[in-house]
């Protein structure tokens, strides 16, 4: 341990965000540079605990104290080796993961936890800058072929592990680019897609084959020795209220992909544009927050995000004691932008955008509202124009509206971001005749193995990885499940495996 009093000397610090008036003018990532010296100071806060609960908090089992210790010594290459031993894509988790490891940090019991995520991201960016990230080619070929259906974090992780084990791996993606919801569901301002492209180059050099614009059928898959279904859980929860069928009401995943295409230059204008509109986002999670930041960049007249849950406390709620992931109030970058108050001194470009949105000095750009229940969507000539709702609470009979809190507000664009409920019944799911449980997940056993009911696939080695089997979850769980599924596939094909399995069989069996 380089400095046993580091956590007493230094306070938590993270990379600053670019000023709101600047970042609202583009789709670039929001982060300022975070110097190596500051990162090393943050790594010095690691207590090198006798029992590092951060290991358990991280679904990948990242060896966090070890690479913290190496970073504070300036041994970046060794830190990178430790990091990549457990995480295929730290540049993704370092930008997008909500860091359950930090929620489990022992220092977090009485102080702010170590900035683990910032250290992780800096390590991998050091590795790229210094040419340490190289293709890891297999030392031998097994002669076995594996199809991976879906190219999100789980599919990419499974594919990379299996390719390195010597199998011939083909990844099928129905979209025109690899990355799944990381590509089209996550806005550029949270993660620029050049980081995905950079990693794909490495995977292709290792031997992984990618096929885009293809939703494979059973015919496409029949000649593979094993199949990994990593198709995600992408069917959004709907809103069963009057007016749901009005024009201007969309699922978040209808809204975000075209907006993201604008963000990295595929289109000039999104097919669903918030410019000059009163936007209401129903759903308080990450997807709704992504819609929030996107609508602000498009020049929305107003943005409101409704969360059905009570406002979280400022510090860890008693319902989520350490080392569980803490329920507490968090300020996402989009909400930080929403709290920005117009001053009248903005740059000419931003002033023009704000003028189009009819905002006046003293007005904030958007707001979150808690315990809000949408009762009805109202409209004219088939288009949504407003929303009726009420404050709500959870009572003995479930969700109840609070008497006397009814309200009505303007809404020209309503975005539904209430979570995801099931896998899509794709051609592959239908042709293999895979079982789907009551929660909309593909059924699998504790070794990630599915049981195809279609006679021609009954003896096939078919596996399910990521959200398709787990239900909608975190990017870090996707990578972890991809790695674990790869180990299961390798063992099924070869009789044994040297690939690591970060997820215990009980974690899979007890996922419900």
UniProtKB/TrEMBL annotation:
Keywords annotated in UniProt: Amino-acid biosynthesis, Glutamate biosynthesis, Oxidoreductase
Pathway given in the UniProt record: Amino-acid biosynthesis
Stored InterPro entries: 4Fe4S_Fe-S-bd, DPD_II, FAD/NAD-bd_sf, FAD/NAD-binding_dom, Glut_synth_ssu1, Glutamate_Synthase, Helical_ferredxn
PROSITE patterns attached to this UniProt entry: 4FE4S_FER_2 (PS51379)
Positions of the 4Fe-4S ferredoxin-type domain: 37-68
Coiled coil location: none
Gene3D superfamilies, sorted: Alpha-helical ferredoxin, FAD/NAD(P)-binding domain, NAD(P)-binding Rossmann-like Domain
Source taxon at top rank: Bacteria
Membrane-spanning intervals of the chain: none
Protein name: Glutamate synthase subunit beta
């Amino acid at each position: 341990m380089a400095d046993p009093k580091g956590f007493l000397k230094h306070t938590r610090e993270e990379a600053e965000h670019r000023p709101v008036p600047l970042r609202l003018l583009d789709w670039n990532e929001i982060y300022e540079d975070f110097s190596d010296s500051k990162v090393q100071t943050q790594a010095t806060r690691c207590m090198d605990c006798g029992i590092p609960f951060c290991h358990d908090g991280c679904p990948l089992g990242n060896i966090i104290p070890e690479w913290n210790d190496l970073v504070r010594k300036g041994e970046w290459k060794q830190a990178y080796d430790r990091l990549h031993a457990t995480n295929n894509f730290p540049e993704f988790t370092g930008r997008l993961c909500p860091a359950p490891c930090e929620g489990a940090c022992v220092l977090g019991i009485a102080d702010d936890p170590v900035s683990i995520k910032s250290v992780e991201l800096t390590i991998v960016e050091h590795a790229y800058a210094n040419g340490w990230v190289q293709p890891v080619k297999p030392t031998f070929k097994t002669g076995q072929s594996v199809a991976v259906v879906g190219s999100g974090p789980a599919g990419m992780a499974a594919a990379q592990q299996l390719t390195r084990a010597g199998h011939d791996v083909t990844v099928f993606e129905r979209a025109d680019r690899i990355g799944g919801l990381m590509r089209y569901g996550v806005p550029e301002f949270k993660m620029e897609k050049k980081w995905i492209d950079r990693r794909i180059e490495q995977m292709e050099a290792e031997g992984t084959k990618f096929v885009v614009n293809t939703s494979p059928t059973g015919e496409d898959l029949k000649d593979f020795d094993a199949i990994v279904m990593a198709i995600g859980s992408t069917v959004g929860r709907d809103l069963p209220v009057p007016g749901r069928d009005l024009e201007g009401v969309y699922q978040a995943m209808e809204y975000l992909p075209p907006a993201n295409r604008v963000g990295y230059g595929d289109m000039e204008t999104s097919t669903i544009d918030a410019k000059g509109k009163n936007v209401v986002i129903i759903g308080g999670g990450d997807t709704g927050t992504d819609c929030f930041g996107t609508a602000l960049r498009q020049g929305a007249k107003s943005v409101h995000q409704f969360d059905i849950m009570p406002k979280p406390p400022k510090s860890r709620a008693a319902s989520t004691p350490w080392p569980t992931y803490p329920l507490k109030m968090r300020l996402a970058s989009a909400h930080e932008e929403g709290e920005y108050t117009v001053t009248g001194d903005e740059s000419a470009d931003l002033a023009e955008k704000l003028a189009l949105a009819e905002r006046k000095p003293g007005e904030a750009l958007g707001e979150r509202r808690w315990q809000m229940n949408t009762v009805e969507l109202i409209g004219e000539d088939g288009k949504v124009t407003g929303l009726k709702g009420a404050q709500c609470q959870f009572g003995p009979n479930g969700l109840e509206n609070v008497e006397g809190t009814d309200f009505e507000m303007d809404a020209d664009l309503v975005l539904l971001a209430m979570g995801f409920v099931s896998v899509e019944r794709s051609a592959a799911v239908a042709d293999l005749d895979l079982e789907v449980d009551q929660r909309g997940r593909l059924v699998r056993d504790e070794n990630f193995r599915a049981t195809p009911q279609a006679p021609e696939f009954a003896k096939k080695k078919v596996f399910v990885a990521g959200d398709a089997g787990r239900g909608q979850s975190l990017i870090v769980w996707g990578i972890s499940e991809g790695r674990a599924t790869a180990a299961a596939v390798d063992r099924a094909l070869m009789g044994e495996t040297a690939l690591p399995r970060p997820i215990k069989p009980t974690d899979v069996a007890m996922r419900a």
